[in-house]
Amino acid sequence: MKRRDFIKTTVGASVGCGFIPLQPLFAQQSAGMTMYDKIWEAHEISYLGGITSVLHVDRMMLPDSGPAAIKRLLDAGERIRNPELVWAVADHQVSTSPERYTNRSLNLGSVADDFPEMKEELAAMGIQAFGIDDPEQGIQHVVGPETGLTLPGMLMVAGDSHTCTHGAVGCVSWGGETAQNVLLTGTVIRERARNLRVNYTGTLGPWVRGKDMILHTIGALGADAGNRCAVEYAGPLLRSLSVEGRMTICNLSIEMGAATGMVAPDDTTYEYVASREFAPRGELWDQALAYWRSLPSDDDAAFYRDETIDMTGVEPQVTWGISPEHVIGISERIPAPDDAPFEKRDAWRRALEYTRLTPGDTIADTPIDEVFIGSCAESRISDLRAAAEVVRGRRVAPNVLAWVIAGSQPVKRQAEAEGLDRIFRDAGFDWREPGCSKCYGSNGDLVAQGKRSVSNSNRNYVGRQGIDAITHLVSTPMAAAAAIAGRIVDVRRLMAGEIA
Amino acid sequence: MNNLKPDGLVQLTGIAAPFMRHDMLIDYIAPPIGSLHAHGSAVITPAGVVGNASGQALRQAFPLDRYLADGSENPEFILNRAPWRNASILLAGRNFGIGGTRTPAAARLLGDGIRAVIAPSFGQVFFDDCIQAGLLPVILGQEQVEAIAAAAVAAPRRELTIDLRWQTISRPDIGPITFQMSPRLRARFMEGLSDIDETTPFQREAEAFQRDHELRQPWIYRSTGDQR
């Protein structure tokens, strides 16, 4: 209690990253704690006053550059503090071409060789590393939960923004950490975020899913709503989602400006986690489970901000601009800058100029050039099944380049076992190898200059998928429907046979 | 991996460049390689990525503004113009660096000679990146930033001073304006500390913590999976 009293009197003087009213963290004293605060305090090595602590790291996740970074440290005579807690996977710079295993120069930089070259050295230290030849290679935010390297209650850090995805299994995870510090000390120094809870209520209409929930939320609350907040997604509707659906929601926490996003673990989580390769078994499982059950926020926990999003009647969402907050329902019309709050009018004007859309037009029927299905937002098996259901028996529109990229090798194998790859290929999609690909383009996979892309990824920023490339963010089935129609369409109408 | 230990920063005096666009995304400060490639300022080859003729686009901030598609400098861009080419302070708009984390964004600004950014607000995650990289983020009210920017346009060679001892910003014709900063971050910049400098003193505590943690949560440490 001493600490809380201290924080109460000093935190007002601490400065955040903007002129947001910094209210005392624990202004409303209550016995209850949020899940974020529980996990934070369970990893607190030292409390430094104000809102700053030194924290213990349970998992450090490294991307393509991982083996090279470790080699440089070892060559400099440094010691990795907790190598058995470190893992690395090749994802950003790997080619997605099926030729990548034989023609290794298709992969950018030295990523294809770094993993095999360092294999023995990494193994001797206990560092798990997934190169392109590994049967479980994939996008890091797919691989972590899928292998059980990510578990409830953990503090997991990495460099990559979308590390917040892992929060869906009930852990606290964030990006933006420097590998050097974490590798050498096994700790991070961080300022504690405030607690924002988003409660989902109502019901989802047909073909409305996790992606629509989070896009709608960012539209309603704003792309800076999460500033200096850790977001806990909750509510009866959220509980009804699969862990994969929850991952999509947590994935876009960073697009809401949040420090991280998470979902309290429940039976759905435990069922998902059980029997994963790196998940505990036997007695350890029982012990872990007992601990995990204590993680959800207490009923009387105080949140800095509590929001409720009623999904009843919300349509499939589609972005029209250059921020995920520029989002409308599929049957809505493109807004005019004058409709925006005063301080956003200029941004809306620039957004419409970039996306070459006219206010008052419907977003539906906008012709498109490319479709991308993949990315850490939605490339898991349930996402691919949803896309395949839309694509089955249909053809990709002429002149549309459409790609499907499974999030990991296990997802790809599962999809192939179910025949989903055939459905995509028969329809005219490219079925490619796992990696980040066109969501970010750092492997050279790009949307052609000035072309309009419909993408199930997470960022529609200027130039994100290629120079002057326009990105419309949608859910996976909406992306599949756009590929079939050659224009942005309502997947519900396509499936009802109302669109030729 | 370089030890990016920044030098201590007690007082910074230099030219301030006004680049006041609001909602500046990290994807704009340090763009994805793909957009550089399509812009013409980088080339993707099987062997890796190479920069344009000068090779700078991959290392500098705002390369899409800084270079034209033929690889030559954009003479209109503020940081390509005298005297702002030598600026060490950037005056920025609301929500500078929103959109996520991109450690190279802060590092590129530093590489360009920018030691401090003054803005009405920052993207939180990028703000943290700045702290880690040693790029001083200063928050002032929007009207104050705009007033300094107007002065920087009117008399661009007059230098601005940021003094961390007194937490003030001043110029012969401005201020001093006081800004807020947490005592820890202020000390971190004044002493030029990195994350490692701040966490290393806690190594004994960290090891003691971990011994206890391993007893309480052994499943974190005892992996069941096959070693790769």
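qc> Residues 59-167+178-185 of chain A form a domain with the Aconitase; domain 3 fold (CATH 3.30.499.10).
qc> done
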